[in-house]
Design brief:
The complex is a heterodimer of chains A (about 290) and B (about 230). Chain A is of the alpha+beta class and about 290 residues long. Chain A contains ten helices and four strands. The chains are: A alpha+beta (about 290), B alpha/beta (about 230).
Amino acid sequence: MALRVGYFFNETLQGLRRNGLVAFAAISTAFIALFLVGGALLVSREVNLLIDFTTRDVEVSVFLQKDISPSQQQHIGDLLGHMPEVASVHFESQQEAYQRFKEIFRNQEVLVQNITPDALPASFRVKLKDPQQFAVVAQRLVGQPGIDKIVDQRQILKRLFAVIRVFRIGVLAVAIVMLVSAAALIGNTVRLAVFNRRKEIGIMRLVGATNWHIRLPFLIEGVIEGLLGAGAAVLGLFIMKVAFIDSLRGKVGFLPLVGTPDVLFAVQLVIPLGGLVAAVASLFAMRRFLEV
Amino acid sequence: MISLSRVSKVYKETVVALDDVSVEIGKGEFVFVVGPSGSGKSTLIRLLLKEEEPTRGDIYVAGKHIGKLSPWKVPYLRRNLGTVFQDFKLLSDKTVFENVAFALEVIGKPRNVIHQRVPEILNLVGLGDKLRNYPDELSGGEQQRVSIARAFINRPLILLADEPTGNLDPGTSVDIMKLLDRINRTGTTVLMATHDNAIVDAMRRRVIELDSGKVIRDQARGVYGYGA
């Protein structure tokens, strides 16, 4: 058995060396494809985090007019508090709004310096039991004096998320195209390797080597190419995370960002995907060449 | 050991390579298949190896109906068949030892078996001192000996030789024939396709003559041609 392992290992190594440049092209394409797949996964994850974050506490903001009387404000608060659709109501005063504003824009001091608490409206920040019921709640408040406007926070984000979603689909589409290319290129190196060694293969068949014995070195060669591409993609994802996301982490403290567990989750998918695509491509490439 | 019953092989629906051939070859026989180029000798060997399927008829090799053999069993059929060709089919980047060892490696034989059997068989074919040479450092006759050693290392029941002396001068051919004769005397059935009349006449073995795919002669201790 030791001999067999050595035999397959040797064959594979020789094959990779012989097809250096083509193998490199195949590995690079696999790398790009899998990197994009991993990237798309991380973007998805980030979008989900953002949705969770932004809609966690507030779904509806009821901005109040500046000259609202305390009794009007009280009335609106009571109305909201008694609606069956409402999960919780929080009153944000102008001072609180200012604090939050300072927090959000703490990296843009000029902006903060030019704003006083007076300039920001007070609001009721409402969490709904079911976020879809915004229209019902808004309808009930129409005509109430002292209300400036009612904003569906999810509506604001909707456009943004739509854009991100399209972007994500785009990345996935490119990733799929690249995956198909990678499969074709890996299949091609395998085909080339088979062609280069047709004399050996002919002899192997004559002396009664089984199909799997003939195919395995080529299959391993293809899978190793796929896995090398996946490995590079994993490395790329971690570099991206460290270089971009981690450096962002300090600056946009109020936003949730994907972290190492998310990258690891993507890795868990990218590596088997690389191996699987390569294996299928290799077997497909050999099918035509290695009939008995 | 080999049995063909009413076997025909037609290529592309018009080219008849074998036409209604029925032949029985017993265990331990030495048989020449003779005939001009294109008479169907090579087709016969390809059919026996199951590299091709007959258009009609049944073929039994080593007790198996090879038409009914499932594809995954074909390699095991071929392990019972040694094959020798005119062009030797040696791997130029492997030494003599490695070329013969290759036949054992690829069917998964362990290393100790290989290291024992390869030098043994190379001694038998008279190349015990050339283990580390590469094929292009050898004469044609020596290369064919390597290829015979490779074909015989698994002790096949049948040795198929397609023009094994086709590239060799007469003196060397005689040596190769002596080697094949020795292998035959170990009990291995030998089927040799050739158009080398001198060899056939000298050996006086069974001769099956093909012409345009038909068996036109099957003679127990024959010569190459009637008038020759």
